[in-house]
Amino acid sequence: MKQILSKSIAWRENFQLNRETEALRIFYGPGESEHPELSKIAIDLFGNHAWITQWSKIKDSAQEEIRQYLLNEKVFGRPIQSAVWIDRSSDKIDDAKPFLGEPPREKFEVREFGIPYLVQMLETKHPGLFLDHAPLRQWLLATQNGKNVLNLFAYTGSLSIAAGRGGATNVVTLDLSKPTIQWARESWVNAGLPDQEQNFIFGDALEWLPRLAKKATQENKLFDTILCDPPSFSRSKTGTFSTQKDSTRLHQLIFPLLKKGGILVTSINSENILERDFLRDIAIAAEKTDSKIRILKRIDLPETFPTDTRQLSTRYLKGFYLLKE
Q1: How many of the other CB atoms lie within 10 Å of CB of 61?
Q2: What's the Cα-to-Cα distance from 233 to each of 151, 202, 241, 268, rounded to whole Å?
């Protein structure tokens, strides 16, 4: 195990993938190991703290070997201060549990491309920063000066922060979870951005999109950039949403909000939905809304999520940068 983990960390360092970030996936078992235990986990680094995700049951002895590795080895020249472990091997998922040392009990700051984001290790099922979308945050930093941005299914708002720090003049952040919207607003202010309480919306995207479209049309303020990365499934007071069934309907509501020349960045996280089927749903929505859409770029997992060529279906992240003409 030690050799496998050390090799994975070494090539990331050789490629300098850790150069501009304190938040990085340092091991992705499903894609870079055939070890019967390590293939079931991933290890993410947030500063000097590790977040370990388990997708299938593993032996206690394997857990202990991983603990000893993190305890005794340095990662990118730094010791690991603490680690948490989250078990996602069943339908019932509890919050991450302390695994090594004393994990921070409060939110703390990590920097990516120079921008601070607030993450959390305990009393949560996710640290709050999706590492697979690091390339998108880098793009937002470079392209959003003067833009009007809508971030749907925003979670803790990291994409909003990247757009804001990239110079966007207006960023609307929407999510179905009240605690995560509060987290997003807290992280936004921590990043040195002006507090705009009215731009943080707690609600169902499918209900809010028609309202936002009406307001944007009345004020002649359609969005330059719309970000859409929904969960595979969610439930609200008024119904359910799934990317399997509702993708066309969702994009039908989005396209009227996007100005001509604007860009929609849309993605899904699912091994079960083929890229071609996702694109078909988008194309149907574009036709139904009389929107002319061009594909600018595909979205894929970054280098820190390597994939065995015999298991290409495990590349769950898929999506597109789309231009509305």
Answers
A1: 9
A2: 18, 17, 6, 11
Range of 24's domain?
2-119
pLDDT for the residue numbered 238: 74
pLDDT in tens, 26-46: 999 999 999 999 999 999 999
DSSP letter assigned to residue 18: T
- The helix or strand, by DSSP H or E, that contains position 151, with its residue range, turns out to be strand 148-152
Whether 76 and 209 map to the same domain: the answer is no
Q: Which two tokens stand for residue 317?
A: 């992240």
pLDDT digits (tens, 9 = 90+) for 65-106: 999 999 999 999 999 999 999 999 998 999 999 999 999 999
Please name the residues in contact with 236: beta carbons below 8 A apart, sequence gap of 6 or more. Answer: 176, 204, 207
Count: domains in the chain: 2
For residue 67, give the H/E element and its range: helix 60-72
pTM for this one? Answer: 0.96
Residue 150 pairs in a beta bridge with 172, 226
Q: Are strands 23-28 and 223-228 parallel, antiparallel or unpaired?
A: unpaired
Judge whether 265 and 282 are in contact, CB under 8 Å.
Answer: no
Q: Within the chain, which residues score under 70 in pLDDT?
A: none
